[in-house]
Fold:
Amino acid sequence: MSRSNLLEKRTAMRYNVLLWMLLVTGVLMLTLKTVYAEVYKTNEAFLSEVFAGKVPTPAHVWLRGDLKAQVNKILMHPYGKLRVKYWKSADKSAWILEEIGKEKPITTGIVINQPGKISKIEILAFRESRGWEVKYPFFLKQFLNAALKADQQLDKPVDGITGATLSVRAVTKLARMALLLHQHETARQGN
Amino acid sequence: MSRTSIWALCLGLSMAGVVNAETTEQKIERLEAELNALADEVERQQESASEAKTSGRTKVGGYGELHFNSTETDDGSASKDELDFHRFVLFLNHDFNEKTRFFSELEVEHSSAGDGKGGAVELEQAYIEHDIGSNFQGKAGLILVPVGIINETHEPATFYGVERNVIAKYILPTTWRVGGVGLSGHNAKGFSFDAILHEGLNIPDTFNIRSGRQSTGNAVAKDFAVTGRLKYTGIAGLELAATAQYQSDFAQGAVYGGSATLLETHAAYTRGSIGVRALYARWDLEGSAAQLADKDVQSGGYVEASYKVTPKVGAFVRYNVWDNGGVGDTEITQTDLGVNYWLNDKVVFKADYQNQTASNNSKASDGFNLGMGYQF
Structure:
């Protein structure tokens, strides 16, 4: 085959490949848009589920003195607010907290039961482009029944996600922070 | 007014006082409400100030790494003792709205660029990403090829070793960026895919794949390439992935050209303090010219084991083997041993020792490397 015939054949093949790519892409986009649709739970829906429809009036824990220092140590940066809002019933407390993964906040709902262990954890908003694995049960189930040790680390290991270290650390920090604040409020209220 | 009326008035006024006076409990509740309202306002103002500082939806970030390399070839014909600010990178990202965003990465390599300088200023990423569905995105622009472990996530705190591993240099031409369009999606089971149509390589007649990167700088676009990746991350700590790429003419019309196919697969698993990574990649270049040069197959891989002694200190060992082809025995192996010390999540200090072996001793370098890296 001559050089010019070879180049013509290659050009024709290129256009065929491009045409097929466009067709396949169009079909893929229509199909996957439906298949991959997913809706986040709102904060209100999360709380309603946790408290069986009877969401208590929110309370606040003020971050001062040692408590503030401990929260900042867990987050490894100053917490930007004066207080943390939470919801409490006789047997549990619920926290909706945010921490930046790589560059955007991950909103996480965490429920601590009265022995001071995590009984529920859900990602209510994940805005990063990478590290999406942290929002699914196959990752979050590692936190269930985790408690806080004296050194304010979790008492069970959390395996990470390759390439999403910062998202994993952000969720882990929020779990530790919720456990710490639950401990503090439980002690303060003498429960 | 009679005395009785005066007494009645006084009694009435005192009763009214009792009714209107706050109880201590009511006063505490009111003060608590006022304090919370005040705190709400302070926090709102803090958030507004914070958003104003970053122009709201525009974010700046970056990473960088300083390296010291001290190596010498096995035959003593060449040595290197260099201190190099290898990469200084700035990210500038912007959210147009909740569904559409822009990412960019601008890099200065080797500290300075220009005539007679060894460095370069390079645009490494600049693309628009749009959420077509909640777990399904489209992107267009200058994007990173979805291949290997560190091509897309290469901030120094995320990997072991001062330099990026040699397979990600000689077989996978990291940082490999291309102009193109792509789709990606994931589901709740941990499966994800990427598919991109992009500018192809323009490999010279030395068949050096890394030299074929065009990086979307007046890139010859007679022949495009397609890349697809499937990834599974549905078990915490585990990543399994495979990438395939096809380009019908790697020389963009030059006489020595032919098709190029890349297959890459890797596994990474972290359990507690222990981490294991393995990667294999292979190029097949079609055409008699590549065959004659014995460069038609170029492949390599590595296995790496690591152990976190403490959350801040980790040690690793890695064995790499690769072959870019050519006359004679061209296989090279490299063993790396080293430690990372993370000062915090985003700052790392590194040290490692490398030992290479090759049939041609001038191609093998041994020595040690020190590094500092950061990201924000």
Helices of chain A lie at 3-35, 43-50, 65-75, 137-140, 165-188. Residues 123 and 136 of chain A are 8 Å apart (CA to CA).
